[in-house]
TrEMBL record:
It is an enzyme of class 3 (hydrolase). GO terms for biological process: proteolysis. It catalyses: Release of an N-terminal dipeptide from a peptide comprising four or more residues, with broad specificity. Also acts on dipeptidyl 2-naphthylamides. The keyword Transmembrane does not apply. It is found in: Cytoplasm. Keywords: Acetylation, Aminopeptidase, Cytoplasm, Hydrolase, Metal-binding, Metalloprotease, Protease, Zinc. Gene3D superfamilies: 3.30.540.30. This is Dipeptidyl peptidase 3.
Length: 707
């Protein structure tokens, strides 16, 4: 059973992202701006391969080489002509690759790539199955010999130098005497060569920290970021206003120098660029996939405003200050001033990264969010395809809930995403003491509502939410935002904003809560019992909410093991809609207040105890979650793959290239994404991966040598 979650079926669902109408409405200048930003995002997205696993860059290079020589249809016909059956073509990858046109043209290179990544690609060795540090999993944010203790030491070092971890990786080498030497490497175009002074240049040196040598270097992903910068320079020529131009100039500075401070400055201009037709953001953004929770994965998106849905979100923003007062914590735990954000519904043209979310609240820099504000976006065309559900594939619901669920899941999710992003991530204050010793709260009068006492803990200068709460920060914050969405969707004003009243409003509430409860059960797929850890922040968050609501009791939620019509284990989730307000809301209110108080006060010990307590997965009755997890794995539906379009410059016109919703369409979209520099990118990726390959020999084979 344990291995089934790592095996994907050949008939996995594929959907296409539709942005034709949104693109059609763009002016020629807006199209050029969007095109060059998209190119920057796609180039930068290749860095994710180097942030994931040692073999990922080689897999990409191998597949790129394979499909440059033959498109999917040609490869299939070639394989069948070579004597493979249809089934073998789907399952015998080594035979397909080594018998391909690419292998015939360049036998040594293709065989070499296969030998480098083939075995690792299919390995189900426990350590190689999921992300983690040292013996717990695989990651290329850290060398293979790094432990959680190394990660903590490095974070303390970074905090001491006022350096952000977002654009860094950590490499440890052990000298002949067994002493560790650490390299903190910043992502940048520039390396060790002399350059004009910037805030980064003075940091590039050797340090001694708590008895350990640290060296701060830069130049990670340099040739990839060079291509990002070139496209951002071109995009500047088509910027709609000075905010966009200055934003791009700072992003260019950030990626060139390795400066997160420059990226923050760019993000300030981005926040000030209200209501653009073409929206975008790019950089080292989300820290979900760093096992320590501090390093950002490269991400870039380009999208076009959907005016109809955006009008609803604008009305929600207009009501935000009033709705914030409904949240269950004292006013002193809320920001001094609500900085009215942009909130738009966007149709995505490009989203480069490891996945595409339904909504985003950025930037993630705590200091900017507290003092400058933020933006919210809901990705409408992603919601339309990624979360669509067929009745026959709906698991764990009662039959009499299924039709209602299908009818209202989309609308209820619009409401949840809006509340989650705007009033979830957008709410709450962090209590901070700055470098001069000044506090942003009144120590004498602010009272902790959980203890009735004055505030005992806060964030010191240089500390952030991510650095302080590290491994639980992302999931804890997603849980807080999801809980705010559930809590505030009960407010009639919210539902009126989205056009729901009376019985329809009640159905939206019910399906929103039911969806969260079902999601909490489905989340068990992302728990690893052997390592006692969660592999996905949002899933962990939804399981925690399920636990909170189950703890409320009084029959609010029941999970009943059953036997399916196929004779295999199954389960049914039931939510008593008559008890959502009387039982569910008070339970969520208590939980939300505790989450916010512990976050505001930087109480890591209290926060960990609360969150990890609810996140624990055991086989204790009555739920027996470990047994239920086996059922979830048995019934799981693989996540859809999403095919994205490309843009192509033809003279001074930008064309939109769309692809069919199939595996072949997905492959073509990638093959045509880099039509002119495919071979160069393959070489860049393999060279960068090979240069650092020695760092991933495994925790028992610590890299040694000159540090």
């Amino acid at each position: 059973m344990a291995d089934t979650q790592y095996i994907l079926p050949n008939d996995i669902g594929v959907s296409s992202l539709d942005c034709r109408e949104a693109f059609r409405l763009l002016s020629p200048t807006e199209r050029l701006y969007a095109h060059h930003l998209s190119r920057a995002a796609w180039y930068g997205g290749l860095a994710v391969l180097l942030q994931t696993s040692p073999e990922a860059p080689y897999i990409y290079a191998l597949l790129s080489r394979l499909f440059r020589a033959q498109d999917p249809d040609q490869l299939r016909q070639h394989a069948l002509a070579e004597g493979l059956t249809e089934e073998e073509y789907q399952e015998k990858l080594e035979r397909v690759i080594l018998g391909s046109e690419a292998a015939q043209q360049h036998p040594e290179e293709v065989r070499g790539l296969w030998q480098t990544c083939g075995e690792l690609m299919f390995s189900l060795e426990p350590r190689l199955r999921h992300l983690g540090l040292g013996k717990e999993g695989i990651t290329t944010y850290f060398s293979g010999n790094c432990t959680m203790e190394d990660a903590k030491l490095a974070q303390d070092f970074l905090d001491s130098q006022n350096l952000s971890a977002y654009n860094t990786r950590l490499f440890k080498e052990v000298d002949g005497e067994g002493k560790p030497h650490y390299e903190v490497r910043l992502a940048s175009v520039l390396g060790s060569e002399p350059s004009l002074d910037s805030e980064v240049t003075s940091k590039l040196k050797s340090y001694e920290f708590r008895g350990s040598p640290f060296q701060v270097t830069r130049g990670d992903y340099a040739p990839i970021l060079q291509k990002v910068v070139e496209q951002l320079e071109k995009a500047k020529a088509y910027a709609a206003n000075s905010h966009q131009g200055q934003m791009l100039a700072q992003y260019i500075e950030s990626f060139t120098q390795g400066s997160i401070e420059a990226h923050k400055r760019g993000s300030r201009f981005w926040i000030q660029d209200k209501g653009p037709i073409v929206e975008s953001y790019i950089g080292f953004i989300e820290s979900y996939r760093d096992p320590f929770g501090s390093r950002g994965e490269f991400e870039g998106f380009v999208a076009v405003v959907n005016k109809a849905m955006s009008a609803k979100f604008e009305r929600l923003v207009a009501s935000a200050e009033q709705l914030l007062k409904e949240l269950p914590w004292p006013p002193t735990f809320e920001k001094d001033k609500f900085l009215t954000p942009d909130f738009t519904s966007l149709d995505v043209l490009t989203f480069a990264g490891s996945g595409i979310p339904a909504g985003i609240n950025i930037p993630n820099y705590d200091d900017l969010r507290q003092t400058e504000g933020f933006k919210n976006v809901s990705l409408g065309n992603v919601l339309a395809v990624a979360y669509a559900t067929q009745r026959e594939k709906l698991t764990f619901l009662e039959e009499d809930d299924k039709d209602l669920y299908i009818l209202w899941k989309g609308p209820s999710f619009d409401v949840q995403v809006g509340l989650h992003e705007l009033l979830g991530h957008g709410s709450g204050k962090l209590f901070v003491q700055d470098e001069k010793g000044a506090f942003n709260f009144d120590q004498e009068t602010v009272i902790n509502p959980e203890t009735g006492e004055q505030i005992q803990s806060w964030y010191r200068s240089g500390e952030t939410w991510d650095s302080k709460f590290s491994t639980i920060a992302s999931s804890y914050e997603e849980c807080r935002a999801e809980s705010v969405g559930l809590y505030l969707c009960l407010h009639p004003q919210v539902l009126e904003i989205f056009g729901f009243e009376g019985a329809d409003a009640e159905d939206v509430i019910y399906v929103n809560w039911l969806n969260m409860v079902r999601a909490g059960l489905l989340a068990l797929e992302f728990y690893t019992p052997e390592a006692f850890n969660w592999r996905q922040a949002h899933m962990q968050a939804r399981f925690v909410i399920l636990r909170v609501l189950l703890e409320a009791g009084e029959g609010l939620i029941t999970i009943t093991p059953t036997t399916g019509s196929d004779g295999r284990p199954d389960a049914r989730v039931r939510l008593d809609r008559s008890k959502i307000r009387s039982v569910g809301k008070p339970a969520l209110e208590r939980f939300l207040r505790r989450l916010q108080v512990l976050k505001s006060t930087g109480d890591v010990a209290g926060g960990r105890a609360l969150y990890e307590g609810y996140a624990a997965v055991t086989d204790a009755p009555p739920e027996c979650f470990l047994t239920l997890r086996d059922t979830v794995l048995l019934r799981k539906e693989s996540r859809k793959l999403i095919v994205q379009p490309n843009t192509r410059l033809e003279g001074s016109d930008v064309q939109l290239l769309e692809y069919e919703a199939s595996a072949a369409g997905l492959i073509r979209s990638f093959s045509e994404r880099f039509p002119e520099d495919g071979p160069e990118l393959e070489e860049i990726l393999t060279q960068l991966a090979t240069a650092d390959a020695r760092f991933w020999k495994g925790p028992s084979e610590a890299p040694s040598g000159q540090a």
